[in-house]
Structures are given as C-alpha cells and as structure tokens.
Amino acid sequence: MDYRRIIPCLDVKDGRLVKGVNFVNLKEIGDPAENAKAYCDAGADELAFLDITATVEGRKTLIDAVKRTVAAISVPLTVGGGIRTVDDIQEMLDAGVSRLSINTAAVRRPELIEEAAKRFGSDRITVAIDTRQSATLPSGFEVMINGGTEGAGIDAVEWAKRCESLGAGAILPTSMDADGMQTGYDLPMTRAIADAVKLPVIASGGAGSLEDLYAGVVEGHADALLVASIAHFGTFTIRQMKEFLKEKGIPVRL
C-alpha cells in the first residue's frame, strides 16, 4: 500500500537540535541523536536532519552529529545543509545516510542535481525548496536560498518542474511564511508544486494540529508530512498523528 509518511525534522545548529519561527528565533531542544532515536522508537517512518546554518557559514554538514544520528536509528535519514558537491553527497552516503537534500547549491548550479542523480540514483536526491510569498512571480511563491536569507528571483513551481526534469527524486518545499507558526502548512504552495510534478512532495513548515496533517495530504496533495514543533514540544506523539490520519481514511503504517 502507498502510505503517507510522517517525517520528524531535526533542525541542527552547532550540533544541537533547535527550532525557530520563520527560520529565526531559534530555541535549543537537545541532542539530535537522542531525539532521533526517540522518534524512531515512536514509529516515525523516516527522519530529516537539516544543518540549518551550514550554507550561511560556508561549511560542510557536521558529519559527527550525522554519524551519531545514523547510529541511533533504524529508519531512513535524509540530510541537508552544506551539501555542495557530489563528493559531499558521497561522504554522507558513506556515513549511512539514505538520502541527501540539496537547496542553495542546486539553485546556484542546477547541473548538480543531474550529476548526483546519475551517480547515486534519483531516489537518493531530494531537492529542498524554501519559499516565500511573492506577488511578482507567476505562482506567487519565490525560491529562497542561503538558509532563507536571500531571494533567488525564481518561481518556486517552475523550479520544482526543472528539478524533476534534471532527475530529482523528491521535492521538499518549506514555507518560510508558515515555518514554526503552527498555523498549518502553506496549502496553496504545497498543492501548486505537488500538482506540477510527478515526484513525491513532502509538506513542510507550519503544522500545528492533527487537522493540519490531514489537510497537508488532502488539500496540499502531499505524499509525506514533515513535522517539527508539534513533535519536539510534545503536542502530539507520532502514534497520535498516524491514528488520526488512519481514522480519516489516510493510509499510514502503524
């Protein structure tokens, strides 16, 4: 059965798990590996590890924190932040990571998507697209880079379609406007991207209630749901999220 996945997201800064609002005002939560193990044990389908300041600080992903996280879990781990080259991707795969998420490096040099997909397989390559509402672009959403600090002047939906054509295996669009607000995913943005590509799309940014998760699938047309605040702060367990979706007729793996 094609079930919808729940993916807790570990935003990591200086090797510590953090969570912010609109990509700023970061609050430290704890150790990423310890939290990853707890989510794995609680039934998470996958996990995401995002080194959120690596690109801005011009460095690679913190490999030691990644290795500790991989060692603590038994589900697939996607890692992003500071991934610039196929060699960076190889290093992460060698460390046991299942998939890599690339964002700024792909915008600056789209050929990286194609090179990575050919070398490692499309299923290993996720393109993360940070978006912000923009009245000047056709879809109404602009691609943001450098940890959300810089607008790329690129339409988010058109960029998603190009990523698909270059060989990306999944798209992870995050709404900067909704991030950490816990008022729900940006459904129009998520749906616009999901409807424009045939790839799996992972809703991200803003989930605050069980109803938000359901809306992400039904209205946002998402294949998977990234969760952070509602998981980190104990609002709901992974089990509660999945049981709610199952009761609503959404296929999940319990």
Quote the beta fraction: 25-35%
Order of helices and strands, N to C? EEEHEHEHEHHEEEHEHEHEHH
Total number of helices: 10
How widely separated are the two ends?
Answer: 12 Å
CATH C-level class is: Alpha Beta
- Report the CATH topology name: TIM Barrel
What does the main sheet amount to?
12 strands, mixed
Strand runs, count = 12
How large is the radius of gyration?
16 Å
Spans of at least 5 consecutive residues whose pLDDT stays below 50 are none
Structural class: alpha/beta
Q: Indicate the CATH architecture.
A: Alpha-Beta Barrel
Shape: globular
Helical residues, percent: 25-40%
Question: What is the count of structural domains?
Answer: 1
Fourth-tier CATH superfamily name: Aldolase class I
Outline:
The protein is an alpha/beta fold and 254 residues long. It has helices at residues 32-42, 63-72, 86-94, 104-108, 111-120, 156-166, 187-196, 210-218, 229-232, 238-247, and strands at 5-13, 16-21, 24-30, 47-51, 77-80, 99-102, 125-133, 141-145, 150-155, 170-175, 202-203, 224-227.
Characterization of the model:
The structure is a single chain. The chain has about 250 residues and is α/β, with parallel strands linked by helices. The chain has one domain: TIM Barrel. The chain contains ten helices and twelve strands. Strands 1, 2, 3, 4, 5, 6, 7, 8, 9, 10, 11 and 12 form a twelve-stranded mixed sheet that branches. Helix 1 (about 30-40) runs parallel beside helix 2, helix 6 packs parallel to helix 7 and helix 8 (about 210-220) packs across helix 10. The longest helix has 11 residues, at about 30-40.
